[in-house]
Amino acid sequence: MNVAELYDELPIELPGDVMDALASHHAKQVAGEFFLRLMNRDEIIELHECLADLKEFQDILPLWSDDNSNYVGLYCRGPLKNKVCYISHEETDLSPGFRSVSSFLASLEQSSDLDWDDLKKDYPTEADIDTQHLEDDRKCIDELNALLHSHQLDDDYRVQLIYSVMAITPKTDLDSIVKYLDDEDMYVQERACEILGYHRHVPAKEKLREIAQSGMPNGRQAAKGALARIRETRETSKS
């Protein structure tokens, strides 16, 4: 596959550094086996055309496949430009897992036998991040929030935007997503519980208890899981 020619055929222009990274990665894929396979020209074009009619997929270029109808895609436009996400055939969650192609490739090439779920990711963040990344993530969140408040959105598109906001929200800013625990969409409420639980965000504990008792079905279970994680942290700190 000639990487430059491949992207000349698509209605998406990629930065030179991304092109260079993909060319280098393609050579490594030719030389060895990867669980996530860089797709060939025809596969990428066909899948991109299939997804292009769906609003939530319009900014994404699928590039890798696990050959089980799951894909890894690159955001090529919009607030999430250059970030990398997973396209599952079972449950749609297009929030980014990596802040850049180079970050994704570093993780993938270090662990070529791993699936997406097992790769070490940038999002949600597990630790404090440097100042530049913090500024970039906050800028991205501001742009996503502007989209969320700009006009009436299709429900599926709205959910995906909120998923992305929650995924990239820094640990220092978690209070800003507590409001999603009260969202009317049960999947948003569920994801808010999961993210706050992932970060073991103690200030959300009382609200999580409320949801565990009277939230929507998905939210109740997720809230219980989040509370368990918070409880584990507190017990560990005492011992």
Could you write a compact summary of the structure shown?
The chain is of the alpha+beta class and 239 residues long. Helix content is 50%, strand content 8%. The chain contains 9 helices and 5 strands.
What characteristic shape results from the CA principal axes? globular
- Please provide the ordered H/E string of secondary-structure elements: HHEHEEEEHHHHHH
Strand order of the largest sheet: 1-2-3-4-5
Distance between the termini: 56 Å
- Count of helical stretches: 9
Q: Return residue spans where pLDDT drops below 50 for at least 5 consecutive residues.
A: none
Name the structural class.
Answer: alpha+beta
Q: Count the E strands.
A: 5
Q: Tell me the β content.
A: 5-15%
Protein name: HEAT repeat domain-containing protein
InterPro entries: ARM-like (IPR011989), ARM-type_fold (IPR016024)
Region (Disordered): 216-239
Biased composition (Basic and acidic residues): 229-239
